Amino acid sequence: MLNKDENELFMRVGPGTAMGELMRRYWHAVGCSELVGAKPQRTKVLGEELLLYRAENGNVVLMDLRCAHRRVALDHGRVEGECIRCPYHGWLYDRSGQCIEQPAEPEGSSFKDKVRLSSYRVQEYSGIVFAYLGPEPAPLLPLFDVLRMTDGVKELMMQTVHTNWLGHAENTVDISHLAWLHGFTFPAYGARKLTYSWDRKPYGIDNVMDVEGSDDAHVSCTGFPTVNRFALPPIDKNGELVLSMIFRVPIDDESIKQYFVRFYPSDKHTFVTRTRDPKPGVYAPLANDWWGIDVPDQDRMAIEQQGVMPDRTQERLGASDGGIILLRQMLREGLSAVANGNDPPCVIRDAAHQIVDFPQKSSIMAKTQSGADYTLGAKAGAELSAR
Ligand code: FES
Ligand SMILES: [Fe+2]
Q: Is 86 touching ligand 1 by the criterion CB < 6 Å?
């Protein structure tokens, strides 16, 4: 369990908090490329209200949401070239956040030179807009394996979940839930006697599950601090495993945005973006499932039902919770590294390590034919060529 102070310390990610400072040392997904256009949109990441738009030259811009003048939200403004103009008194900001026009100020005034909004580094990769909100120099964007794959069918699904980020991160290492929460969907390990171990890696943690009666371990991976990589059963009979990863990005202390990427090799080359807006406490039903909930909502149920900001002073961790203990150790290391001016775990600065291949494997999943539609999401756009 955590004491009250550490539980709070771990969960709060706003500007100026210790965990917020740690989380700002990593690149985070902040949007789906297909959904970011010339119409400015508001978003929120790590407790900061931000503005996101695609400039006329195609570049994506991320900056403070509110005009420095009288704090109007700039998603009601308009894009001019790479700049954004405030709709109230017409102040114009360039992509760096620098104010470059103040139409109502006297001719020749230098006031605008002193006005600057924060703007952030952005990179688009595999249909996702990633941003870095921390201090310079920025680390390298990790090029995870599923993101790099293009020779097949890829799907990106975005949804908001209204609970604190830490429960989501802990869920990635909490592999003893697989046999129970997902036991009906994946009978290869449902209610079976399993053993667990966790290996610390340069990218995070390998979560290893040995299944009774199988000589091949099941391995899923955690990309520290908020990324999950795993396999799902083939959609088509005798098809390929669905290689999956989830980015769970704190919106604020009480919600996260989830970006779920699935890929399987195929002659069809497609890329589809979907969105979903699930209501807290409402889960897609599945009559035969042990818990009556369809697989895309099972983890969301378990995380939401711990509470929006869970009280970890009351939990009772056992030997099967070694992954949670390791993850928390890494968070403590990260907090202390940042406090001492050092890089926290898993930050990449050497280009030789920018490509990250996870050793995810699951022969038991390969034997499961689910035929499931894992997403339940609404399709956001036409099928695109693979990017
Ligand atoms: S509030 Fe934006 S220009 Fe005045
Ligand atoms: Fe799960």
A: yes
Give the environment of ion ligand 2: residues with CB less than 5 A.
299
Q: For the packed helices 4-11 and 322-339, what is the interaxial angle rounded to 10 degrees?
A: 70
The protein residue with its alpha carbon nearest to ligand 1, atom 1, reads 70
Question: Each residue of 32-61: pLDDT tens digit?
Answer: 999 999 999 999 999 999 999 999 999 999
CA separation for the pair 221, 145 (Å, rounded):
12
Where are the chain's structural domains?
27-132, 143-379
Q: What is the CATH number of domain 143-379?
A: 3.90.380
The answer to whether 257 and 130 have CB atoms below 8 angstroms apart is: no
Q: Which two tokens stand for residue 9?
A: 């310390």
The predicted pLDDT at position 233 comes to 85
Alpha-carbon distances of 208 from 88, 227, 295, 317, 366, rounded to whole Å:
56, 16, 21, 18, 17
User: CATH second-level architecture of 27-132?
Assistant: 3-layer Sandwich (2.102)
Ligand 1 touching residue 88 (CB < 6 A): yes
| pTM, to two decimals | 0.94
pLDDT digits 0-9 by tens, 137-172: 999 999 999 999 999 999 999 999 999 999 999 999
From ligand 2's centre to the CA of 161, what distance in Å? 15
Per the CB < 8 A criterion, the answer to whether 202 and 216 are in contact is: no
Residue 73 is classified by DSSP as B
Ligand closest to the CA atom of residue 176: 2
Q: Residue of the nearest CA to atom 3 in ligand 1?
A: 89
